[in-house]
C-alpha cells in the first residue's frame, strides 16, 4: 500500500482540500465522516452542489446571486427604488439584509479595485451602475464596501465618477464596533470614531 | 426576500455546515467559492462524494477502508503476518503507515470503549481479532489506540482478554513528542517519559 489512500477516498480528500478554509487534515476528517454517514446525507451534499451550479445565476440588474433573474429584491415593489447600496460581493447583500435597516436596492460590483490582483475598474460592474443611475429615479448611492485599502480606493473612484451626477453618494460610518473595548481599538478606527462623533 | 438565501444556495450552505469542522460562516464561504468555481471543479467534488459511497467498503479481515476486500495490506505477501497492530479508526492505519516503521498487519476496532457514548466491547471488532489470533500465526499484538481515557481502557480490556493466549501484547511508548519543550509538557506525559526512560 502506498502512503496515500485508495483511489476514491484520496480523490474525495483532495477535492475537499481544494475548498477555502479546509486543510488536508480537515479534508481527511470530512471524508471519513462522509464514509460513515448514511448514503442519504452524502447524496444530499452531492445533489446540493450540482443543484447550485445548475440553478443559481446572477441577477441581470443588481448582480446578486439568485434563482430567478431579475432577483426577488429587484422586483419587490415594497423596496425603496430611490436608494442603491453598492457592495463588493453577493454575500455582503445578505449581511446588510440581516441588519433590517435597509429597504432600498443593491448593486453588486463583483469585487474591489486591487492592482496587486490585477483587478481594475473595468473588471467591476461599474458601467451597469451608471446605467441604473441614468433613469434619474435614484437619489442616493450608499457605498458599503469593505473598510480596507481596496474598498476605500473603489469607494473613492466611484464617488468621483458619480460627482457630476445629481445623486448623493454616502458611505458606511467608520467607528468602534458595538461591544468593543476602547483599549483595544486601533488608532485609525478610534480616530475615525472621533472625527465622526455625534450628539449623545 | 427573507433573511436566508434562495433555496439552492441555502441548501448547499446547510449541507456543508453539517460536516465536521465547518461552521455556518465557513459553509457560506465554501458555497460562494463553488458558485464562482468552474462547473468542472464543482462536478468533480459531487462525483467524488458519490464515488466514495459507491466504491469504498470495509476489509473483511482487518476492518480498514478499501475498494477491494480483503484490502491491499491484508493480501500483501511482503507484510509480516506475525504482528498485528490494533488501531481505533481506519485513518489511524494511514498515520502508522506514514511512519514507515511498521511492516505487519492491522486490525481496526472501529472505536474505543466509551460508556458515556454507549460504546461497549460488544460494539468493537474484538471477536474478529480473537479469530485472527486463533490461527497461532501471530506472535505479537501492538495496541496503538489513542492515549486518552477511552483508548487506555480499551487497551487494558483487550490486554487482559489476550492474557491467556500465547501472544505478546505491547503498546505504543508514551513520552515527550519529538520537538517538544520540557517546560510545556504536562505532568502525566513527563512522568511517563521518566518511567519509560531508555539508555542514551
Please tag this protein with its features:
6 strands; 200 residues; alpha/beta; homodimer; Helicase, Ruva Protein, domain 3; 12% strand; 2 domains; globular; Dna Topoisomerase Vi A Subunit, Chain: A, domain 2
Write the layout of secondary structure elements.
2 copies of one chain form a homodimer.
Chain A: H1 7-17, H2 24-36, H3 39-55, E1 57-58, E2 65-66, H4 72-75, E3 80-87, H5 90-99, E4 104-108, H6 126-133, E5 140-143, H7 149-162, E6 168-171, H8 187-195
Parallel strand pairs in A: 3-4, 3-5, 5-6
Antiparallel strand pairs in A: 1-2
Helix pairs in contact in A: 1-2
Zinc finger (C4-type) (chains A, B): 59-74
GO biological process, one term (chains A, B): DNA recombination
Keywords (chains A, B): DNA damage, DNA recombination, DNA repair, Metal-binding, Zinc, Zinc-finger
Short note summarizing the structure:
The structure is a homodimer of 200-residue chains. The first copy, chain A, is α/β, with parallel strands linked by helices. Chain A has eight helices and six strands.
Amino acid at each position: 500500500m502506498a502512503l496515500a489512500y485508495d483511489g476514491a477516498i484520496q480523490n474525495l480528500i483532495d477535492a475537499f482540500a481544494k475548498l477555502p478554509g479546509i486543510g488536508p487534515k480537515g479534508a481527511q476528517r470530512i471524508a471519513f465522516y462522509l464514509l460513515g454517514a448514511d448514503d442519504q446525507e452524502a447524496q444530499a451534499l452531492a445533489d446540493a452542489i450540482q443543484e447550485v451550479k445548475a440553478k443559481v445565476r446572477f441577477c441581470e440588474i443588481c448582480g446578486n446571486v439568485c434563482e430567478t433573474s431579475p432577483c426577488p429584491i429587484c422586483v419587490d415593489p415594497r423596496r425603496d427604488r430611490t436608494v442603491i447600496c453598492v457592495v463588493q460581493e453577493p454575500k455582503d447583500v445578505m449581511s446588510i439584509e440581516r441588519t433590517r435597516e435597509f429597504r432600498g436596492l443593491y448593486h453588486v460590483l463583483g469585487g474591489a479595485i486591487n492592482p496587486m490582483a490585477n483587478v481594475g475598474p473595468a473588471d467591476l460592474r461599474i458601467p451597469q451602475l451608471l446605467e441604473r443611475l441614468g433613469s434619474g429615479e435614484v437619489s442616493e448611492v450608499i457605498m458599503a464596501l469593505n473598510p480596507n485599502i481596496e474598498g476605500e480606493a473603489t469607494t473613492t473612484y466611484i464617488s468621483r465618477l458619480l460627482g457630476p451626477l445629481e445623486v448623493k453618494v454616502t458611505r458606511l460610518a467608520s467607528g468602534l464596533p458595538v461591544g468593543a473595548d476602547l483599549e483595544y481599538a486601533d488608532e485609525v478606527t478610534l480616530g475615525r470614531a472621533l472625527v465622526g462623533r455625534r450628539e449623545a
